[in-house]
Amino acid sequence: MFIRNSRVYYTGFFFLLFFIYPLTLLGWGELRYAQTTTNIRAERNAKSKIIGKLKPGEKVKVDFLIDNWFAVFEENETLRKESKAIGYVYFSLLRRNPPYSLTQTNWENMWGLGVSKIKKMEDNELIKSEYLNGSEFLIYKGFFDSHECLTSYRFVDNKLIQCSYLITLDSKYSDKCFQEYEKHKKTLTNKYGDPMTSREDWVNYQYRNRPQDWDLAIKVGHLRCKSMWSSKSTVVRIDIFSKDYKPIISVMHFDKKRLSTIKKLTPGWGF
Predict the structure, then answer these.
(1) Can you give the residue ranges of every domain in the chain?
(2) Residue 81 has pLDDT above 70, yes or no
(3) CA–CA separation, 168 and 111 (whole Å)
(4) What angle is formed at CA 33 by the lines to CA 44 and CA 184, rounded to 5 degrees?
(5) Phi and psi of 3, rounded to 5°?
(6) Is 166 in contact with 154 (CB distance < 8 Å)?
(7) Average pLDDT in the chain
(8) Which pLDDT score is estimated for 193?
(9) Residue 246: which residues within 8 A CB-CB, separation 6 or more?
(10) Angstrom distance (rounded) from CA 190 to CA 176
(11) For residues 193 and 187, what is the distance between their CA atoms, to the nearest angstrom?
(12) What is the pLDDT at residue 106?
């Protein structure tokens, strides 16, 4: 009788050890990314104490979604207990994909993808879908390097041929907008090598010989800068210009194989 009871005991023990207990460690929550600098709060409301911050692109595990607030955990947390949470973050501030980046995307693998595929991959808000000049466009609202960003995907015959980021710099960065342009230009140079062409176009020469005032020159519309790179599969162009005294950085990626099609469908296309 003792032996039989022992077998039952050990069977139950190993069932708990190898089946039930691992379920408390695996298969719970999901990984999400902060899109911009994000506050972690002590409770599920925007007035509660800020107890930490997430950096743009920082990855956390989330679960226990209540009243649109996630409980946030360290990425490698194994126990599904809300008491293990490091705090709470409003759900829309965390996305399944990291914020847009100049380095994360392998464009060679993206060109030719269809509309439905991009929609499945995107986690940001689709704000517009339109057909224009022989092309179909999907436009999403997201974040790029802590800045709000509009991302446009362009398709011809249901194949992706262009992706563009349009970044409007807020007041925090408008007075150092040329530095932002130079920073992204350096990132692209590190990825693609020296630009095939780079130039400054001056509408008004008032600040041309005063580099310390080039931020102002951009804001008032006197200066527009642009650079372009070419790789085996992709042509990349970055511009900085101003609209209504707000500096804007534009980064465009083109499918090199379909560049002639893009030029035909885009009046005035050129460098």
Answers:
(1) 2-95, 107-265
(2) yes
(3) 26
(4) 130
(5) -65, -45
(6) no
(7) 88
(8) 95
(9) 168, 169, 174, 219
(10) 21
(11) 10
(12) 87
Q: For residue 193, what is the DSSP state?
A: -
Mean pLDDT of 179-197: 95
Taking the complete model, does pTM exceed 0.85, yes or no? no
* Residue 94 and residue 70 in contact, taking contact as beta carbons nearer than 8 Å: yes
Which strand (E) or helix (H) includes residue 126? strand 125-132
Q: How far is CA 184 from CA 44, 140, 191, in A?
A: 36, 21, 11
Burial degree of 220 (CB within 10 A; 0-12, 13-18, 19+)? middle
Q: Which CATH architecture has domain 107-265?
A: 3-Layer(aba) Sandwich (3.40)
Cβ atoms within 10 Å, residue 25: 11
- State CA 259 to chain mean position distance: 25
Is the distance from CB of 259 to CB of 265 less than 8 angstroms?
no
Helices (H), 82-176: 115-121, 171-174
Task: For residues 214 and 205, give the distance between their C-alpha atoms in angstroms, rounded to a whole number.
Answer: 11
The secondary structure of 157-191 as a DSSP string is TTEEEEEEEEEE--HHHHTTHHHHHHHHHHHHHHH
CA atoms 42, 44, 49, 55: torsion sign: positive
Other residues' Cβ atoms within 10 Å of the Cβ of residue 198: 15
| Whole-angstrom distance, CA of residue 53 vs CA of residue 264 | 47
Q: Which residues contact 21 (CB under 8 A, 6 or more apart)?
A: none
Q: What is the CATH number of domain 2-95?
A: 2.30.30.40
Phi then psi dihedrals of residue 196, to 5 deg: -70, -25
Question: Strand 38-41's sheet: what is its strand order?
Answer: 50-54, 38-41, 87-90, 69-73, 59-66, 30-34, 94-95
What three-state secondary structure class fits 134? coil
Q: Is 3 left (phi over 0), alpha (psi -120 to 50) or beta?
A: alpha
Residue 230 has which token pair?
């070419």
